[in-house]
Amino acid sequence: MKRYAIAAVAALTLVGPLAGTAAAQTRRDVREERQDVREAQRDVRDARRDLREERRDVRQAQRWNQRTHNGYYLGNRFYYGQPSYQHMQRRDYRPAWQNWRRGDRLSQYHRSQYREVDWRRERLRQPPRGYHYVRDDRGEVLLVGIATGVILSILLSQ
Measured between alpha carbons, how far apart are the two ends of the chain, in Å? Predict the structure, then answer.
């Protein structure tokens, strides 16, 4: 019986360090896997941050500027005036500048924004019935229908 006990102790003595190295190897593998996971998470965070910065740059470029924009596009249709916050959040929104043309319509926003011009003081001809002169932000005088807001004529500033 002593022989069996001595053989068992000798076997455990020899196998013990091997089991310890296997456990150490397993721990090392686990540490490396955790490090790989952390690096992957860091890469994902960096990619998300880059995407947020890119979106912020696009929003900065699409921010409304009264000096450079007088309207905006939603899809392929142009609207004069400053857009609402909801319009600015849409994917098909883009600010733009477009010169006034005969037949364009001033929105309620524009009619309240531009002041009426005294045609006598400015030495302009009397406007037809139902029309009045307004001055836009660039100094142009527009002959606009009072009820409809449709532009009949555009006079350049003097």
Answer: 121
Q: What is the pLDDT, as a whole number, of residue 129?
A: 92
CB environment 18-39: b (16+ within 10 A), e (fewer): eeeeeeeeeeeeeeeeeeeeee
Domain boundaries, the chain: 1-61, 64-98, 108-155
Q: Which residues pair with 79 in a beta bridge?
A: 72
Q: Do residues 127 and 143 touch, judged by C-beta distance below 8 A? A: yes
Question: 0.85 exceeded by the pTM?
Answer: no
DSSP string spanning 35-57? HHHHHHHHHHHHHHHHHHHHHHH
